[in-house]
Amino acid sequence: xxxxxxxxxxxxxxxxxxxxxxxxxxxxxxxxxxxxxxxxxxxxxxxxxxxxxxxxxxxxxxxxxxxxxxxxxxxxxxxxxxxxxxxxxxxxxxxxxxxxxxxxxxxxxxxxxxxxxxxxxxxxxxxxxxxxxxxxxxxxxxxxxxxxxxxxxxxxxxxxxxxxxxxxxxxxxxxxxxxxxxxxxxxxxxxxxxxxxxxxxxxxxxxxxxxxxxxxxxxxxxxxxxxxxxxxxxxxxxxxxxxxxxxxxxxxxxxxxxxxxxxxxxxxxxxxxxxxxxxxxxxxxxxxxxxxxxxxxxxxxxxxxxxxxxxxx
Length: 313
Ligand code: NAP
Fold this sequence. Notes:
Layout: E1 4-10, H1 14-25, E2 30-34, H2 61-74, E3 78-81, E4 84-88, E5 94-98, E6 102-110, E7 114-116, H3 124-127, E8 132-133, H4 136-139, E9 147-151, H5 155-164, E10 170-174, H6 184-191, E11 196-199, E12 202-208, E13 215-220, E14 226-230, E15 239-242, E16 246-248, E17 259-260, E18 263-264, E19 277-279, H7 291-312
Parallel strand pairs: 1-2, 1-6, 2-3, 6-19, 8-15, 9-10, 9-15, 10-11
Antiparallel strand pairs: 4-5, 5-6, 7-16, 12-13, 13-14, 17-18
The chain binds NADP nicotinamide-adenine-dinucleotide phosphate.
């Protein structure tokens, strides 16, 4: 370990990359640490139509994120692929301990985002990757001409169900209530799509099969009635996609920064309760988690990190 960075950014989603761009542009020595692929959740989003300016034909999560990555690199943000196992956030120099190395910075921006909430049914783990998926962009093509089910009633569930109709023979949305949470404009598209059907007031209780998902038991939450849903015998399988919200990737920070239900509490300037430690994007406690708000958080966090450095130096 030799270098002490001005800013270390943990996570290379829209929040982390925007922070990297702003920190790099301010000539701060900047390191972005990411354990997987850049982009976080938008790396698995097929269509981006509400990020301002993202009107390019065929704009997808990966294409937008590739430009964000290139932009952060252009301004000098360094980048390392590592999984952080522990952090020491107190004091003037923060230490991040990874599987491959240790990294030191005067400030840290936590931008680790969130991950899909599990469906919560019996046997779920056994069938993840064997019929259960949380990413339509990644797995839709496995279900070309098969039947798929989508759990959830929010924007993600309904948008992804519409996307899945490009591949699947039939898409059934399983929702625990009798009306959708999704934006009206998205709902209208789904109701107009004759490949989409609905199972209202229903949750998935159990998933079944030998090696691959070929049956499930669903429960009507109003009547308590359990129904077994079988794959068409000619298919022998079906897909089950979960889109029922997200959980924060914040286990690592427990007891180290102030949180509320796993989301990091910051002020309007992205400061956590620890001096020199900022948070940005979906990991924060906030009311709108979108690419545009994540990017804005990242810009603010990096700018405030620069200001903090000016104050302590
Ligand atoms: P969400 O808005 O929180 O919706 C989650 C859905 O899953 C809700 O319909 C909820 O049911 C259901 N649900 C939650 N827990 C459940 C459980 N244990 N069992 C069964 N169903 C459960 O999540 P999201 O759709 O992923 O969206 C997250 C955020 O991203 C939202 O702010 C959304 O607006 C935004 N987003 C925006 C766009 C866009 O603008 N194009 C696209 C995707 C996401 P209830 O309705 O009964 O609570």
